[in-house]
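Two folds, back to back.
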Amino acid sequence: MTSIHSRLYQIAEQQGGYFSAGQARQAGLSRALLTYHTRQGRFLRIRRGVYRLAEFPEMPHADLMVAWLATGGRAVVSHESALLLYGLTDLLPAEIHLTVPRTASRRRAGVRLHTARLSEEEVTFRHGLAVTTLPRTIVDLIRSGVAEEWVYQAVRQALERGLVSEAALQEEARRRGGQVAATIYSALERYHAL
């Protein structure tokens, strides 16, 4: 039994103490044991199918973790929610934005699901969460019609903090073309004009 708890702890530790019922099953914990440990206070049930180890304190961005786990772990934090994870906005999005494969697009309250196929190069991890890379996040923001000032602010802060290189943004602009390229090049021009 200790090896099961050890496996579950290793999963949850990387996710701020959170885990899904599916991850508990993968670690070897039966539904009956999951229920037992929840009743005993060892696990806290956060919402249907999502739990937290009781000894872990609430983490920053817990709402993102819970939404990500509830979506089945195939989701990637994106758009305005990705900006929040990167610390590039002070505004809290009205909804949690997740990008999911086309086959996983069920509605969830308070969560905005975007469907797209993301390559491995477009996904990274921050705070235990899968999140779109900064260049992909910028592309998603432009395509979703976010105010250009948000894009300019995100590009400026990301460059100043060394979170993304100018070359990576230029490469993304060349690859995407159109409005995406125009907005990225405009943001880079404004950055150099400061």
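---
second:
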Amino acid sequence: MKAGEDKLVQRIVKALAPEGGPWLPLGVGDDAALLTPRRGYDTILTCDWFLEGTHFLPGKHPADSIGWKCLARALSDIAAMGGEPRCFLLSLALPGKLALKEKGRGTGWLDEFLDGLRRAARRFRCMLAGGDTTQRREILINVTVVGEVLAGRAVLRSGAKAGDRIFVSGTLGEAELGLQKLRQGARVSPRNDRALRKHLYPEPRLPLGQWLADRKLAGSMMDLSDGLSSDLPRLCAASAVGARIHVAQIPSPKVPLSASRRFDALSLALNGGDDYELLFTVSANNAPRIPHSFQGIALTEIGEVTREQRVVMAQQDGTTKPLLPRGWDPFRK
């Protein structure tokens, strides 16, 4: 068993080719890594599970997208604080057969998984520093990311104030639409389908988060991983405020006419998870400084922060109703 695990670790290290640096004097190869924080920076720590049957579906999700997404979703937490990623730890449990190359093929599941993970690590400049491996009947992945942000510049959920404007990046609900297409056996290439691409290969908004933090524009911020209807109340609770959002201003996905009976665009935008966009608040004075887009990503004002500690939606007819949290909740029955 030990020899097999050693070979597995060697394949992971070879695939990800981790390199040290002045802030990571010791990476993979010892009992633990050594990290030297930069002077004048705070360290950000976050971790994320990615589980077979819960976060991805065997036989539906390509192995390389699982590798990409397990890191990208964890990096979204770094983006939400305005930070910059440095390195990550990978804990991987998988069936022994998946660690083997398939007969008659050049690569197997593990090679494809590591290829997606390697591309994400290079794309977002976050190197492997260590981790752990074991064998299990189903695939369990845990990623821990270390990031940095200038001391005192981290953007928290708790900084929203009454009168602030509420913004979101991107289009909400696209990833959920992509998941539903995947469940229904979509054969369209992610390259040609925006919703599938966003679900399978999400892009954490790291440059946007850093831009907002560096310029002290965002008073509060978090990433949208569970859906706007669930995440916005969390930000409001942390800041002891409420919110009023406008239905007409929420950036919803374009649902194909053939699927319009099955999918409601507004419901997808409010309750769909996995978007990994940024939700942030900006003071009324600074709101005009927020552009309509940042590096090709739309930035949309969707409402305002209120003193009354409840979250409501303003309808197009002027009436309001409570925003019920109907996003992703692993403990909901």
